[in-house]
Amino acid sequence: MQTDRETDMRGRGTPLFDGEVIVVTGGARGMGAAEARLAVAEGATVVIGDILDEAGEALADELGPRCRYRHLDVSVEADWAAAVEFASSLGQVSGLVNNAAIYVPQPLMDTPVEMFERHLRVNQLGCFLGMRAVVPAMKAGGGGSIVNLSSSAGLRGSPGSFAYSATKWAVRGMTKSAAMDLGPHGIRVNSLHPGPIDTPMIAFRTEEQMRQRLAKVPLGRMGGPEEVAEMVVFLLSRRGAYITGAEIAVDGGVSL
Ligand SMILES: NC(=O)c1ccc[n+]([C@@H]2O[C@H](COP(=O)([O-])OP(=O)(O)OC[C@H]3O[C@@H](n4cnc5c(N)ncnc54)[C@H](O)[C@@H]3O)[C@@H](O)[C@H]2O)c1
């Protein structure tokens, strides 16, 4: 008799998903767009949620009928309810990628309260609201997988980006607590920690700033969004079936 594991090993090369629905926040551009693209290529139905409506609609059109765009401000609870209802109308919701975030780097003493709160609302509250919104649908379907995007700034101290770093540590902590709460329901929760990745989020850096940053990366280069997407999709799929509560760095070694 063949075990599930042997059957799965034989299935290598076949798509990882069979129409299951995955919600990707901040999917209109950058890493989220790469994650949506790869998940669709692997057979998933993807709902992109973002506040960049034009870019989100354009990507969904490009990726075809298994990709839909939905306006979703992750810091607004009512937007989450509507997005999950929409996603559930397309099939079984089995995955969530809490990828949306803002990054306004300021050191502690230069961080106004409003800016700290803005980071909290999008990066931390957004992640909490997202997990809470999808869990009933995942439970009803017998399980699921949630990937929360933290950062190398959520693995160690990070100079000059106090509010951002605070929220990325929070995402890491919430991931572990959620993994313990949700494991008995077959829902896995992991945090992913990218290093410098070539996306619009860090495009404001000057060449000199990038040179200094890359000098601290053992692999000596920026990562591509598709390199992060590979790990996200792995964790969402059956390949990651025994991984939960883990913090996985995709960072060229920068957090060592
Ligand atoms: N790029 C990097 O070097 C880097 C490094 C470490 C971690 N990260 C993390 O990776 C994730 C993806 O970042 P990226 O580099 O692709 O950034 P990006 O700025 O290119 O994309 C972020 C997306 O989130 C969306 N977004 C912002 N606020 C939102 C809100 N309130 N509701 C819904 N969507 C919202 C933006 O519109 C955008 O489409 C983020 O969590 C980021 O913190 C990025």
UniProtKB/TrEMBL annotation:
Its EC number is 1.1.1.47. It is an enzyme of class 1 (oxidoreductase). Gene3D superfamilies: NAD(P)-binding Rossmann-like Domain. InterPro entries: NAD(P)-bd_dom_sf (IPR036291), Sc_DH/Rdtase_CS (IPR020904), SDR_fam (IPR002347). One of its GO terms (molecular function) is glucose 1-dehydrogenase [NAD(P)+] activity. The keyword Oxidoreductase applies. It holds the Pfam family adh_short_C2. It comes from the Bacteria. Belongs to the short-chain dehydrogenases/reductases (SDR) family. This is Glucose 1-dehydrogenase.
